[in-house]
Amino acid sequence: MTAPALHVSGTAHIGSEHVFGPLTLDARAGRWTCLLGPSGVGKTTLLRLIAGLDDVTRFDGTISASDGQPLDGRLALMAQSDLLMPWLDATENTLLGARLRGTPPDHARARDVLDRVGLSDHAHKRPGQLSGGQRQRVALARTLMEDRAIVLLDEPFSALDARTRSQMQDLACDLLAGRTVLMVTHDPAEAARVGDAILIMAPDRLTPVPPPPSAPPRAIDDPATLQAQADLLTRLRDSAA
């Protein structure tokens, strides 16, 4: 799969209320771009606009891929909540996209994907029988099942404990390698660990912050990663003030 870069440029409004912009975002092809910023600045709205899921916000501008091809059918969105259907087991939740589209489910591929996220032994369990980390693994499996070139992540691991969150970051970096990933996060440590590019969003601009020099996912105790985390936290505090 060849993943294109993602380009967004424009301004968003809800009615007469300004949401964000004008701003320009370029997410590099096959890399992770992390987007941070204060609550309410429009990060989730931006993801929903890219995904074509926002019927309320008016966007004046362009959202496009670098190869000039339409984005429809090439995007997957993984949200903060796992959004699992409680009456379906892990396998059927992984196959939810096919069910909603009315296409034949690929059970063999679902088994393979669940094996890749370490859930082979839990394939027939319903969400209520799974831990928080296991539920997020099912959500990641469902995202992988869609096999899209561009993946949008909206704080997908923020509800997990620190140990599980770190494990999920490592797993996602491995399994989404080669995809163009745009992730919204409130966690400077997460951005410092996984970002190939890091942006801080304000209502009228995006400010790039240099990532650590090593390749993600970076060690949690790497000095450059810890320094980047501290720098991001300082910048976020200053922007909020």
Query: What's the average pLDDT?
Result: 92
User: How many H/I helical runs?
Assistant: 8
The secondary-structure element order is: EEEHEEHHHHEHEHEEH
Shape designation? globular
Query: End-to-end span in angstroms?
Result: 43 Å
Helix content: 25-40%
Largest sheet report: 6 strands, mixed
Which structural category fits the helices and strands? alpha/beta
- Stretches with pLDDT under 50, minimum 5 residues: none
User: What Rg, in angstroms, do the CA atoms define?
Assistant: 18 Å
* Beta-strand content estimate: 15-25%
**Cross-sheet strand order for the largest sheet:** 5-6-7-3-8-9
| Strand elements, count | 9
Can you offer a commentary on this structure?
The structure is a single chain. This protein is of the alpha/beta class and 241 residues long. 35% of the residues lie in helices and 24% in strands. It has 8 helices and 9 strands. The strands form 2 sheets. It has a 6-stranded mixed β-sheet with strand order 5-6-7-3-8-9, with helices on both faces. The longest helix has 18 residues, at 223-240.
